[in-house]
Design a protein that fits this description.
- The chain has 252 residues and is of the alpha/beta class.
- The protein has a single domain, classed as NAD(P)-binding Rossmann-like Domain (Rossmann fold).
- It is built from 8 helices and 9 strands.
- Strand 4, helix 4 and strand 5 form a beta-alpha-beta unit.
- Helix 6 packs across helix 7.
- 47% of the residues are buried.
- The structure holds NADP nicotinamide-adenine-dinucleotide phosphate.
- NADP nicotinamide-adenine-dinucleotide phosphate binds next to helix 1, strand 2 and helix 6.
Length: 252
């Protein structure tokens, strides 16, 4: 199947490691041009070098903090300039979650306001694309109890509702909007790698909760993100997709 991504202009908010980084790699393999950001320069530079070696497209990489409106604005504006337009926007990064006000503000700023602010800037350019899409990376923590309450699940839930509303409103302007929720996903140095080290019994219980007896891998999530965002998924709009290997015990 041709995903229709050759020469596509793709922006990923938070892509120096983990799910965002692997998503960037698959877009690059498909011939897309990339604009990626992260807060730390070092990881970003490594990612840029690796991504350039994967595909023939261009890679614009710049530091930005999505919790800071001005920093986010600069990145999105300059990224669109560097790409020469925009077809696909992926909002991947998440904020510091927690139970206290700081945690709620941190998650709200990056996850929800980050999405709203990026779309406000990107919408006029996306409207000019023949294949425009926006994808929010959510979490199955918005669907089921993970043993601890925090700002994370509720605000990932807000992103699912936002994707639905924007899919209706922006669909009229030719822009698809969806949310994709990964289940527990392991990668070296990621949050589940740290949990495996710090709390092996809990990690094993999570493995047992998945029918395949293991956590997801980043490429298993990233392939679904790339498909959902691509022109090949042209009839998927205003919805939410779970990619968790059956970890969640919900029906829909
Ligand atoms: N991994 C999982 O098991 C899992 C499960 C369900 C959902 N998810 C969701 O999937 C997404 C990616 O998760 P992950 O585990 O791959 O992520 P991660 O390890 O948290 O990495 C996220 C990426 O975003 C960047 N980033 C983080 N905060 C940022 C900010 N304020 N401004 C700009 N860039 C920022 C990070 O680089 P810097 O640190 O350098 O900024 C990194 O490149 C998140 O939305 C997460 O909630 C993950």
């Amino acid at each position: 199947m041709d995903l229709g991504l050759d020469d596509a202009k793709v922006m990923i908010l938070g892509a120096s490691r983990g799910i965002g980084r692997m998503t960037a790699e698959i877009f690059a393999e498909e011939g897309a041009n990339l604009a990626i950001c992260a807060r730390n320069l070092e990881g970003l530079e490594v990612a840029k070098k690796e991504l350039l070696s994967v595909g023939n497209g261009s890679v614009f990489a710049s530091t930005a903090d999505l919790s800071d409106a001005e920093s986010l604005r600069d990145f999105v504006e300059v990224g669109i300039q560097e790409l020469g337009g925009l077809d696909i926007l992926i909002h991947n990064a998440t904020g510091v979650s927690g139970q206290d006000e700081e945690g709620w503000r941190g998650t709200f700023e990056v996850d929800v306001l980050g999405a709203v602010r990026a779309i406000e800037i990107a919408q006029p350019t996306l409207e000019k694309s023949e294949n425009a899409s926006i994808t929010f990376i959510g979490s199955t923590a918005s669907k089921q109890w993970f043993g601890r309450w925090s700002s994370y699940g509720p605000l990932k839930g807000a992103m699912r509702v936002l994707a639905n509303e924007l899919g209706q409103a922006l669909g009229k302007r030719g822009i698809r909007v969806n949310a994709l929720s990964p289940g527990a996903t392991w990668f070296p140095g990621g949050s589940w790698d740290r949990t495996k080290e710090a709390n092996p019994d809990f990690y094993k219980s999570v493995e047992r909760s998945v029918p395949f007896g293991r956590l997801g891998h980043v490429d298993e999530i990233a392939r679904s993100i790339v498909f959902l965002a691509s022109p090949a998924a042209s009839w998927i709009n205003a919805t939410h997709i779970v990619v968790d290997g059956g970890q969640g015990k919900f029906v829909d």
